[in-house]
C-alpha cells in the first residue's frame, strides 16, 4: 500500500486524498484475494475428488466438474428468467391494513394486462417497433457491409492492416462508441460554425446542418449506424475467413467458363459461405437485442428513440414498475425464440453428422 | 497508438498455390471495389481519430471550435487527460477523478474473466469427454441459454444478491457473480467446441494408463486448450470491460467502472462537456492495447465459435 500512496505527490491532488488510495488498495487486495481463494478452493476440491478410490471416483469427479456450471445457470439464469415471466403477469397493489391503515404491498395476478398495456400504450408500442427496426437493420447492414469489404480487400495489398481498421471498433465499448458518434460525428450547433465532422462536411457543401439525434424518425437510424459501425468488423473477419475457405479451383473453373467477378460472387462465393452468413446474422441479431448502452448514453430514449432493452431498464430500476419491465423482457425473449429454435435444430444436425 | 497494428492471422496461407501478385491482380481489379474499400476503411477509422483529436482541444475552445481549427492554431493540449484522471470528472467539487473508475474497471474485470474461464473449462471437459446421461441435453440447454436476453434475469437475480439474501449487490462480489453467471453459456459453448476436437486417442490413452478425470483435466486438457482459453479470456475481458448494463444494475458508486460516469455525462452539455472525449478515450486505451496485442488469439476464438458448430 505504501508503494501505491507513494505515487500521490507530484500529481494534481484535488481528487486524490489518502482515502482515495486506501479505498483503491483495499479494492485491489479484495480482487487478488478473491482470485487466489477461488483457484485454491477449486484446486482443493478437484484433488479431493482425486483421492476417492474405486468405482465411485469417476462419478464424484463428474459431479465436481459439472455442478458449478449447473448451479450458476439454474440460480442465475433459469430461475430468474422463469421468475421474470411470473412477474410479468402480476401487478403491485397497495392494500391498507384493516387495523393500522398502513399500506402493505402485494403482488396480484393480473393476467395479460401488462402485455396489453405494452402493445396499446403509444410510447411502449413505439419502443417495441423501434426494437424491431434495430433487429432488422443492424444485422443486415453489418453483414452486408462486412461481406462487401471482405470481398473487396480479399488478397489485396495490405489486407491485414485494412482488416484491422474496420475490426477495431469491436474493442471499443458501446458507451465509448456513443461518445464518439454523439460528440464527434453527430454534434450539432444551432448557431456558429459546426464542430461535428458530419455537419461540418454538410456545411462545406453548402447544405443545412442536421440535428442528428433529435430529427424524427431518422434519429433512430443514426443510432443504428453506431451499432453497425461496431459490429461490421466482427462480420467481416468471420466472413473473410469463410471466403478463404472456398476452394480456389471452383473460382478458376468458373472464370475459364467465362463467368465474370459478379457472377462468381453470386454463384460460388455466396452459396459456399451461406452457413457462415447465417451464423453471423444470428449472432448480431442477438447482440442487437441486448443493446441498451447506445440509447441510454445518447438520447435516454427521448425523441422516440427508445428500445425495449432501455425501456425495460428504466421501468424496472428508475420508475419502479418492475412488472411492466418484466413483460417487456419477456417480449424481448419472444423475439429471439425463432432464432433459438433454428439454432438448436442446426446444432443437432451438426452433432448427428459428427 | 503509434505502434503498427499486428495483423489478423491469415488462416489459409497454405491453401494458396498461386503467387500473391497474380492473386491480387485477379481480385482487386475493379477500381470501384478499391474505391469502396477505401471509403469504408476511412469511415470506420475517422470517428476514432476524431475522438482522439477532440480530446486534445482545450476546455475554453471546445464549445466554439472544431479540432481541425484548433490544430491550425497549434493549441492542442494533453491537459484534459490530467484533469479527468487525477482532478475531477464532471463536477469540480464532488465527483471522483476517473482514476478511481479506471481501477474499478480492473477490479471488476480481472476476476470476472478468471471465474467463468475456470468453471466453464471444467464443464466443457465434463460435457465433451465424460459420457453420462443427459450430457447432450445439458449442452443444448446451455447453447440455447446464450440467446436469453440477460434483461430477463436481472430483477430476480438482483433480488437474490440483494440485502434480504446474499447481500452482495452494490459490492464487487455481487458484480463478479453477475458477470460470471452471464458469461457461462458462451464460455461453455466456445470451450466445448475446442475441447471436443482434441483427438480421442490422447484421452483414451490416458484413461488406459489409469489417469483419473482430474488428472486428465490438469495434465492434458488445460495444456492443449491454451489457445481457446486465451481467446475466451480476451473475449470476456472486452465484454466485461465494456459492459454498462450489468455494472449499473449490480454495482454502486463504490464499484462503477469507467463506462458508468462516461455514459451519465455523455448527454451532458454543461461546462464539463469537454472532459467527455478524453474520458472516453481513456476507457478505450486498455481494451485497444489488449485487442491489438492479442488480436490473433481473439480472432481464432471467434472463428472456433462461429464457423464450427
Q: Please report which band the strand proportion of chain A falls in: under 5%, 5-15%, 15-25%, 25-35%, 35-45% or over 45%.
A: under 5%
Taking the sheet with the most strands of chain A, its summary is:
2 strands, antiparallel
Largest interface: A-B, 139 and 141 residues
Q: How many DSSP-defined strands of chain B?
A: 0
**Measured distance between first and last alpha carbons of chain B:** 36 Å
Average pLDDT rating of chain B: 81
Instruction: Give the C-alpha Rg of chain A.
Output: 27 Å
Question: What structural class results from the helix and strand content of chain B?
Answer: mainly alpha
The stretches of 5 or more residues of chain A where confidence is low (pLDDT under 50) are 1-13
Query: What best-fitting shape of chain A do the alpha-carbon axes yield?
Result: globular
Give me the count of strands of chain A: 2
Which class of secondary structure composition applies to the elements of chain A? mainly alpha
User: How widely separated are the two ends of chain A?
Assistant: 55 Å
* Helix and strand element order of chain B: HHHHHHHHHHHHHHH
Radius of gyration of chain B: 24 Å
**Widest β-sheet, arrangement of strands of chain A:** 1-2
Number of helices of chain B: 15
Task: Enumerate how many helices of chain A there are, as a single number.
Answer: 15
**Major sheet size, sense and barrel closure of chain B:** none
Amino acid at each position: 500500500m505504501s508503494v501505491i500512496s507513494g505515487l500521490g505527490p507530484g500529481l494534481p491532488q484535488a481528487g486524490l486524498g489518502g482515502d482515495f488510495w486506501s479505498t483503491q488498495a483495499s479494492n485491489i487486495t479484495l480482487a487478488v484475494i478473491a482470485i487466489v481463494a477461488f483457484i485454491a478452493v477449486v484446486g482443493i476440491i478437484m484433488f479431493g475428488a482425486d483421492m476417492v478410490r474405486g468405482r465411485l471416483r469417476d462419478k464424484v469427479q463428474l459431479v465436481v466438474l459439472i455442478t458449478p456450471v449447473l448451479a450458476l445457470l439454474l440460480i442465475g439464469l433459469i430461475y430468474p428468467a422463469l421468475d421474470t415471466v411470473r412477474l410479468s403477469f402480476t401487478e403491485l397493489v397497495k392494500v391498507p391494513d384493516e387495523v393500522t391503515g398502513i399500506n402493505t404491498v402485494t403482488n396480484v395476478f393480473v393476467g395479460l394486462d401488462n402485455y396489453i398495456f405494452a402493445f396499446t400504450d403509444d410510447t411502449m408500442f413505439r419502443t417495441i417497433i423501434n426494437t424491431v427496426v434495430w433487429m432488422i437493420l443492424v444485422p443486415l447492414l453489418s453483414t452486408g457491409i462486412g461481406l462487401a469489404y471482405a470481398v473487396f480487400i480479399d488478397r489485396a495489398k495490405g489486407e491485414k492492416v485494412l482488416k484491422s481498421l474496420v475490426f477495431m471498433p469491436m474493442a471499443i465499448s458501446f458507451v465509448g462508441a456513443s461518445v464518439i458518434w454523439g460528440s464527434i460525428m453527430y454534434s450539432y450547433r444551432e448557431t456558429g460554425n459546426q464542430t461535428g465532422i458530419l455537419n461540418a462536411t454538410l456545411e462545406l457543401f453548402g447544405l443545412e446542418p442536421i440535428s442528428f439525434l433529435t430529427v424524427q424518425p431518422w434519429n433512430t437510424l443514426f443510432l443504428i449506424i453506431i451499432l453497425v459501425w461496431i459490429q461490421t468488423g466482427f462480420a467481416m473477419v468471420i466472413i473473410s475467413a469463410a471466403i478463404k475457405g472456398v476452394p480456389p479451383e471452383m473460382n478458376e473453373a468458373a472464370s475459364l467458363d467465362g463467368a465474370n467477378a459478379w457472377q462468381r460472387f453470386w454463384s460460388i462465393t455466396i452459396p459456399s459461405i451461406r452457413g457462415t452468413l447465417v451464423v453471423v446474422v444470428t449472432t448480431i441479431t442477438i447482440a442487437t437485442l441486448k443493446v441498451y448502452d447506445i440509447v441510454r448514453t445518447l438520447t435516454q430514449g427521448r425523441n422516440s428513440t427508445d428500445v425495449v432493452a432501455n425501456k425495460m431498464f428504466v421501468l424496472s430500476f428508475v420508475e419502479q414498475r418492475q412488472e411492466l419491465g418484466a413483460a417487456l423482457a419477456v417480449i424481448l425473449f419472444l423475439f429471439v425464440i425463432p432464432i433459438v429454435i433454428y439454432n438448436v435444430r442446426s446444432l443437432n444436425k451438426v452433432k448427428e453428422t459428427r | 497508438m503509434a505502434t503498427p497494428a499486428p495483423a489478423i492471422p491469415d488462416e489459409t496461407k497454405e491453401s494458396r498455390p498461386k503467387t500473391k501478385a497474380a492473386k491480387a491482380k485477379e481480385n482487386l481489379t475493379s477500381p470501384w471495389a478499391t474505391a469502396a474499400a477505401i471509403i469504408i476503411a476511412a469511415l470506420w477509422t475517422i470517428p476514432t481519430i476524431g475522438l482522439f483529436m477532440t480530446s486534445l482541444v482545450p476546455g475554453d475552445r471546445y464549445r466554439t471550435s472544431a479540432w481541425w481549427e484548433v490544430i491550425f492554431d497549434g493549441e492542442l493540449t494533453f491537459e484534459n487527460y490530467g484533469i479527468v484522471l487525477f482532478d475531477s470528472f464532471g463536477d469540480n467539487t464532488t465527483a471522483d477523478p476517473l482514476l478511481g473508475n479506471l481501477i474499478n474497471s480492473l477490479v471488476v474485470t480481472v476476476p470476472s474473466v478468471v471465474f467463468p474461464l475456470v468453471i466453464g473449462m471444467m464443464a466443457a471437459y465434463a460435457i465433451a469427454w465424460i459420457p453420462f446421461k443427459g450430457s447432450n441435453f445439458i449442452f443444448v440447454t446451455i447453447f440455447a441459454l446464450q440467446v436469453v436476453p440477460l434483461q430477463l434475469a436481472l430483477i430476480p437475480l438482483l433480488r437474490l444478491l440483494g440485502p434480504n439474501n446474499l447481500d452482495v449487490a452494490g459490492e464487487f462480489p455481487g458484480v463478479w457473480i453477475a458477470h460470471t453467471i452471464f458469461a457461462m453459456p458462451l464460455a461453455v459453448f466456445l470451450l466445448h467446441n475446442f475441447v471436443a476436437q482434441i483427438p480421442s486417442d490422447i484421452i483414451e490413452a490416458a484413461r488406459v494408463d489409469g489417469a483419473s478425470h482430474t488428472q486428465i483435466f490438469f495434465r492434458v486438457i488445460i495444456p492443449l486448450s491454451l489457445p481457446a482459453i486465451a481467446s475466451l479470456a480476451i473475449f470476456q475481458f472486452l465484454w466485461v470491460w465494456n459492459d454498462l448494463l450489468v455494472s449499473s444494475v449490480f454495482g454502486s458508486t463504490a464499484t462503477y467502472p469507467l463506462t458508468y460516469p462516461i455514459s451519465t455525462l455523455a448527454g451532458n452539455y454543461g461546462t464539463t462537456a469537454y472532459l467527455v472525449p478524453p474520458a472516453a478515450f481513456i476507457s478505450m486505451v486498455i481494451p485497444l492495447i489488449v485487442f491489438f496485442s492479442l488480436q490473433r488469439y481473439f480472432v481464432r476464438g471467434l472463428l472456433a465459435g462461429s464457423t464450427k458448430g
